[in-house]
Amino acid sequence: MSGDPLVGRLLDRRYRILSRVARGGMASVYEATDTRLDRTVAVKVMHPGLGDDQAFAERFVREARAAARLNHPHVVGVYDQGDDTSDGTDTVFLVMEYVPGHTLRDVIRKEAPMPPTRALALLEPVVSALAAAHRAGLVHRDVKPENVLIADEAHGGRVKVADFGLAKAVSADTQHTATGGVLIGTVSYLAPELVVDGRADARADVYAAGVVLHELLTGKKPHEGESPIQVAYRHVHHDVPMPSVLQPDIPDYVDALVARATSRDRDQRPADATVLLHHLHRVEQALRDGLSSDPDLATDLLPRRVPGDDGAGTAGDTRNDTTPEPFDAGALALLTEVDPRDSGLVADGSPDRTTALERHLVPSTGPAPAPMTGPMTTTPRPDGTGSVEPATTALPASADAPRRPGPAPGRAPSKVAPVATTARRRSRKGPIAFVLAVLLVAGVGAGAWWFGWERYTTTPGVLSVDEATATAELESAGLEAEVGEPAYSENLAAGLVISTDPGPGDRVLDGGTVTLVLSLGPERYGVPDLAGQTEDQAQDALAATNLDFGESVGRWSETVPEGQVIRTSPKVGTVLKPGATVDLVLSRGRKPIEVKDWTGRSFDAARTALEKRRLEVSVAGEEYSDTVPEGTVISQDPATGTLFRGDTVSFVVSLGPELVEVPRLEAMGVEAATDVLEDLGFEVETEQAQIYLGLGYVSSSDPGEGERVPKGSTITLFVV
Length: 720
Fold this sequence. Notes:
Radius of gyration: 45 Å
Number of strands: 31
CATH topology of the largest domain: Transferase(Phosphotransferase), domain 1
Number of helices: 19
Helix content: 25-40%
Mean pLDDT: 78
């Protein structure tokens, strides 16, 4: 575009900038040509203010390398990273795969709200890409529809997630602080913990994916406001509404999936995108089965309620919770300019989505009790009795609001009655009280000695022995043994004691119980048989066996369809440690064989070359030719193109010119001999023999009798 100094520039003497396709808060994306490999790429150029920061540039390089390690069909590939200084300034850039098409935001504008099947089909590749990143230790931190690219149908229509690594590179050391820090990510998709302290893990990506799913289903963002601060506070203090509030036809289990992914308590969310992908597949299966409701699945997916939460004012409910969590001081300063009712700091009457869904799943057995509006207090009556009434309390409009002097409206000022006093006398019970106090202290001390020490014994050390030996030693010490959950150990064989609770040397009650943790031996997993699976399915299967996906390598295959796994490296059944890398060999389909034109060339040479490339060769016919030598190809089918192993190429081969035998001509008249030769297709010339008598008879010919010569050749007759 005109006016952009980068357009037309050659970065790193390799990437020719063509046009700008997008601009964000930290970088601009350009369509460019890789002049070295002659391909179209996308180049993301950091804004000059960021690129000049050496610390940021170093983080950007590290995270670009980390993102480049992601080899996944739904992740935009990272090709290169560089820093161009040809114009005297640092231009930090990242070279990525160019995806011609549109973004998920465009789909939302056109199709949302959309059916759950369509929404989950769009979200599944996004979650699959996030799962691959989480397995590689990367957190995206800026999941939003704008970062989901969808290729045109001409380019396969594949969904790809962009900007892996960049968000993490920015936020690695720039937490949201009170001194001018920045909060990385689009506010509409920020997890509450990112708003509160700026720190997040894979569950922040899960939250953002849940918000995207809500937007696909309803066409609306779950939290909106007049300013980013208002939206951020709503993420902290308000649950994401159930999609069925806006679209009543949405099944309960789809509601529950959104609730699980967007729980404000990150411990209630799926641990990472791999777990979320598993839940998503369960919901997709229910949709394929045509279930309009599945209470069991919905209950299983629904976030677990905190013990003691009755839905009327717990930490998970925003209706009575007006105490904000810690937040950035700068954000609070901005918030003072906002109406508190719009800030998210006060309740806005929005329902608790967990309670709402549970009411939908569990039939009500009676009317709910009326909530109390405050603590109980006793109000005196004129007759001296008291009636118990709920005391109502009111919060001031602001912390700085002046207090009104005088009694509260409607209540009389209280009076303080005088208290009569008398002179004290010395008590005779003093010594007795002292003795009792000493005895009490002694008793307490003895009790403390007994309860805190004497009734305990020391746990004997029973590590590295088998269960029977450990049990015998514990019983001889007056203790009981029980077996807890076993655990893997790289150092101890299966069946030996890894640890105890309490540990060796720790105190335990006499006759108490010591829990033994037995070894399962080294933790190992066999490489599963992934042949015939797609790359996504194979990666999910590896994750389920605690093995990591390494990389995919394409190979031609005559038997395995394109895109499916041919084999793994290491091979199936190989026993590996958890986290070991397994590479996939994927089929590229049948290997194409280019066929060239062999016309005018030796048939034997053509047959040898084609059979060597596993093609079949056949002779469709042989023909005489006055122009094509014998054994040479006259024509072939197909003449050129692409074939596959086992396909046939047919040839028409030349027999050379047609040969005719010269007949006996001696003693024949010249005219008769000429007629015979011309009938056979020969040309005729006559000459006088050495002994010419003028008789007009043929004495001999050249070529002579019995010779085979090509039709059309000239025969010379010698006449006597």
